[in-house]
Structure formats: structure tokens, C-alpha cells
Write a structure and sequence with these properties.
With 228 residues, this protein is of the alpha/beta class. Helices cover 32% and strands 29% of the residues. It has 7 helices and 10 strands. Strands 6-7-8-3-9-10 form a 6-stranded mixed beta sheet, with helices on both faces. The chain has a 4-stranded antiparallel beta sheet with strand order 2-1-4-5, with helices on one face. Strand 4 and strand 5 form a beta hairpin.
């Protein structure tokens, strides 16, 4: 019996204004991702991959259609509701880590928790748990400049999971890494999916990264052209 649906994208259109011209990025796209599924989004530049990821993560809104995540209609939320929903429900992993260079690994991972009603002791427990999961509990006081690229991405992943969200979204998570570090990060994502039952959606240009997923979804000109 298949797992329940985590992400349900229904007849989604997304267009942008460029001067007087309207540019259609997504055209009536439908997609379902099950809970605890690892999905990769592939396609040429401009195919709509990152736009789709941003809609699923509540960073943007569709022009029409619906985006439902774990039964919540994300596409209909107000900005205030979206901000609260993102904090508790989605973890973000970025290509260039998006860490604050003046903060230690500990403080970078702690940032999302500052938006929640937690005590310092509760925050510390969650931060240390997240850093332990990614294998960096011995680097809590290191700043990003003192860490390798792979270690910085691990800090980024710890920050993404520190609120224990059901969904992780990653935009080119291995794009700035060498082959060995990229493999290590993909191993880690696979382990998070298995041990913590996370649903993971990544955008990638790397066929090796895409092959690690349960399902490769290919987009072209704003539509799904292949879903293996």
C-alpha cells in the first residue's frame, strides 16, 4: 500500500511579467509526492524546476491552481500563515549553503528555532541533536570559513532539519561540491529519508545526484515530460 501523499500540486500555472510581456513558466502542472519519498527534479535551465520547488516550499504562489502539503493548502495562505508554516514544516538546503559567516555552526543551526517559543535549553538540545545527526557535533564553535564546503553543507542540512520538518527541499545541494563531498551529502540525505522518514525533493543538473532519488521527474517548458 503506497504512503499517504505529502505534496499535491494540482493544475498549477505560474507566469511572470517581464515588461509588457507575460512569461509562462509552469503550464497546468500536476504532481504528487508521497510521504517519505525522495524525488529529483531535472530539466534544462528555464524549465521551471526551481519555480516548482519554490511553490511547494511556500516561497512563491501559483498564478492559478493549488499546492497542498500534508493536507494544508499552502497556495491559499496569507503571508503571516506562510511564514509560520515554513518555519515548522519545511527545511531548506541551498547550493551555496547560505550560512552567516560571523556565526558559529551552532548559531547558524539555531537560527530557525529563534522563531519558535522555545527555551534556550530546548534550543540547545535540538541544535546538538541536528549537528550530531550530520556528524558535526565536534564543530559547534567553528565558523563557516573554518569548515570545508562539505562541512558547510552539513551545517546547512542541520539547520534545515533542526525544527524537525516533514519536508526537505534542496536546490542544487551538491552543485558547489567536489565529487567526494557531493557523494557524502547524497548519502546523508538518503539516511535522513530512511532514519527520520523525511520527504525530500531536490533540484539538480547532476544525473548522479538524480539517480539517488526514488523517482526522477523531468520538466521542460513548464510541464512534466518524464517521471521515472
Amino acid at each position: 500500500m503506497p504512503n499517504p501523499v505529502c505534496v499535491d500540486v494540482r493544475d498549477v500555472h505560474k507566469s511572470f511579467k517581464r515588461g509588457i510581456e507575460t512569461v509562462d513558466v509552469l503550464n497546468g502542472l500536476n504532481l504528487q509526492v508521497q510521504e517519505n519519498e525522495f524525488v529529483s527534479l531535472m530539466g534544462p535551465s528555464g524549465s521551471g524546476k526551481t519555480t516548482l520547488l519554490n511553490l511547494i516550499a511556500g516561497l512563491d504562489r501559483p498564478t492559478s491552481g493549488e499546492v497542498i502539503v500534508q493536507g494544508e493548502r499552502v497556495s491559499s495562505m496569507t503571508e503571516t500563515q506562510l511564514a509560520a508554516w515554513r518555519t515548522r514544516s519545511v527545511g531548506f538546503v541551498f547550493q551555496f549553503y547560505n550560512l552567516l559567516s560571523v556565526l558559529t555552526a551552532y548559531r547558524n543551526v539555531e537560527l530557525p528555532l529563534l522563531l519558535l517559543p522555545l527555551s534556550a535549553a530546548e534550543r540547545k538540545k535540538q541544535v546538538m541533536t541536528a549537528l550530531d545527526i550530520v556528524g558535526l557535533s565536534d564543530r559547534v564553535n567553528h565558523r563557516p570559513g573554518q569548515l570545508s564546503g562539505g562541512q558547510q553543507q552539513r551545517v546547512g542540512i542541520a539547520r534545515a532539519i533542526v525544527t524537525d520538518p516533514a519536508l526537505l527541499v534542496a536546490d542544487e545541494p551538491t552543485g558547489a561540491l567536489d565529487a567526494k563531498s557531493a557523494d557524502d551529502i547524497l548519502d546523508l540525505l538518503g539516511e535522513l529519508r530512511k532514519s527520520l522518514k523525511k520527504t525530500i525533493i531536490i533540484v539538480t543538473h547532476d544525473p548522479r545526484a538524480a539517480a539517488r532519488a526514488d523517482r526522477e521527474i523531468h520538466l521542460d517548458k513548464g510541464q512534466l515530460v518524464d517521471a521515472r
